[in-house]
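Internal tracking record. Fields below are filled automatically when a chain is submitted to the structure queue. Please do not edit lines marked as system-generated. If the sequence contains nonstandard residues, flag them in the REMARKS field before resubmitting.
Queue: standard
Priority: normal
Entity type: single polypeptide chain
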Amino acid sequence: MIKPSLFELLYMNRLSIKILICVIICLLLGFASGYGTGEAISGWYQNLEKPNWTPPNWIFGPVWTLLYILMGISAAIIWHSKNTMKKRALMFFLIQFILNLAWSSVFFNFRLVGWAFVEIIVLIIFLLLTVVYFYKINKTATYLLLPYLFWTAFASLLNGSLWFLNQS
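SYSTEM-GENERATED OUTPUT FOLLOWS
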């Protein structure tokens, strides 16, 4: 069996540290965003008319936890790469992540369901740009973002449906 060189071990260790940093940041910011909307979820949101395909509230926490972990790993892989496009890719990642966090406040705290729908469409555009740039750098990082892209697309359909059903 061939043992990895010291350089290879250090390289892998740096990636592990970057993964840990990115996952912790994504989880902390995600949890903070979710915590800030808890009261609206148990109050205002409960009283909205919802489509029959709306997931139960308990599913959102576990799904977002997994998605934030995958997002953190994906971002760390790009951060660790030596590709010259990584700064632009990470800029798009940061923009879409900020939009992701902002959506919760627009929807739950400000109760602006229509503006939240517009905001989530902009989020999806930046998420798609992130996916395109990540794909040019590392396919594994891209694949890790696909569940988040699919979930965000689903969330946009739910947001649009809630807007439609609750216009007064």
